[in-house]
């Protein structure tokens, strides 16, 4: 599952500052995937990034797997909502 989280985070390279990408990947490598997902969701909101419905569902699935609901905070960022 760590690989899936890292792949998701890397989809945002060039869209959010690299230092946040690097920090989140480091968190995943330290078995802190839930915190990395929380940070990613905050960055999506803070940078007002529009994401596709498919990407939202990917984020949601990973959040649910790790027992978090951070995906709810970025629903407004889904393009077309």
Write the layout of secondary structure elements.
Layout: H1 2-10, H2 18-29, H3 33-46, H4 53-65
Helix pairs in contact: 1-2, 2-3
Strand content: under 5%
SS field, number of helical segments:
4
- Mean pLDDT score: 94
Question: How many distinct folded domains?
Answer: 1
Quote the distance from N terminus to C terminus. 29 Å
| Main β-sheet description | none
The topology string of helices and strands comes to: HHHH
Flag low-confidence runs: none
Number of strands: 0
Which secondary-structure class do the elements indicate? mainly alpha
Radius of gyration: 11 Å
Query: In one word, what is the shape?
Result: globular
Please provide a written account of the structure:
By secondary structure, the protein is an all-alpha fold. The protein has one domain (2-74). It has helices spanning 2-10, 18-29, 33-46, 53-65. Helix 1 packs antiparallel against helix 2 and helix 2 runs antiparallel to helix 3 (33-46). The model has no long low-confidence stretch (mean pLDDT 94).
């Amino acid at each position: 599952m760590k690989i899936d989280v890292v792949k998701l985070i890397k989809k945002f390279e060039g869209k959010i500052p690299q230092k946040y990408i690097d920090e989140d990947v480091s968190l995943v490598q330290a078995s802190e995937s839930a915190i990395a997902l929380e940070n990613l969701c905050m960055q999506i909101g803070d940078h007002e990034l529009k994401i596709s419905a498919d990407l939202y569902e990917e984020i949601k699935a990973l959040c649910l797997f790790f027992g978090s609901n951070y995906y709810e905070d970025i629903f407004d960022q889904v393009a077309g909502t």
